[in-house]
Amino acid sequence: MDSEVSAGSGSTTVVGRLALGITLLAFGLGTTGVMHGVAASDAVSVAHYVGGVALFLVGLVAFRGGDSASGTRFVALGALWFTWAVAGQSSANAAGLFLLLFALVALTLTLAGGDSLGQLMHGLLFLAMLVLAVAAFAGSSSLTKVGGWVAAVSGAVAWYAATAALAHWPTALPGRAARRGVTATG
């Protein structure tokens, strides 16, 4: 893959976003408790193999192809999902600290730039992990559900971004003109 290719157009980016989307949807919907008998702990296998192993491998393939931005994204996220999946039960404060560190990585990925859907996806991931960290520290089930919904929305954005690249759907978010009287052409 050419390193000059825009974010979202390479096959590693599509596969990585699909893996991240599936993981976030499973984790997020499990965390919300919206489905009877399904909890975040039920997403451990998905997080371990799809979010952890698959994302990490996609990141390595991206690095090998010269795409250091996608490589960094997917290796870091894969390592975090793998760690979450194998960590097992821990104290609320330990879980909160891990989620806070996860949020900081997502914030870095958001600020690193890229395409608008990627930034939205990472920004929502940051918000989800931040809310979940606060929920863990505070012991708040209401905040946990809010964080789960934000994670699920982030997963839906990741899934859409990957599917849009394959199906040639729109991927640009609408923007505003720089100043009054300026119109977009095209």
Detailed description of the structure:
The structure is a single chain. Mean pLDDT is 87; it is low at 1-9. This protein has six helices and no strands. Helix 2 packs antiparallel against helix 3, helix 3 (68-87) packs antiparallel against helix 4 (92-111) and helix 4 packs antiparallel against helix 5 (116-138). It is globular. The chain is mostly helical and 186 residues long. 72% of the residues lie in helices and 0% in strands.
Short description:
The chain has 186 residues and is an all-alpha fold.
Primary descriptors:
186 residues; mainly alpha; 72% helix
Secondary structure topology:
Elements: H1 11-32, H2 44-64, H3 68-87, H4 92-111, H5 116-138, H6 141-167
Helix pairs in contact: 1-2, 1-6, 2-3, 3-4, 4-5, 5-6
Number of helices: 6
Q: So what's the oligomer here?
A: single chain
Give the averaged pLDDT, no decimals.
87
Major pleated sheet = none
Structural class: mainly alpha
- Uncertain segments are 1-9
Rg, Å, rounded: 17 Å
Helix and strand sequence: HHHHHH
- Strand count: 0
β-strand amount: under 5%
Question: What portion of residues is helical?
Answer: over 70%
The shape is: globular
Distance between the termini: 28 Å
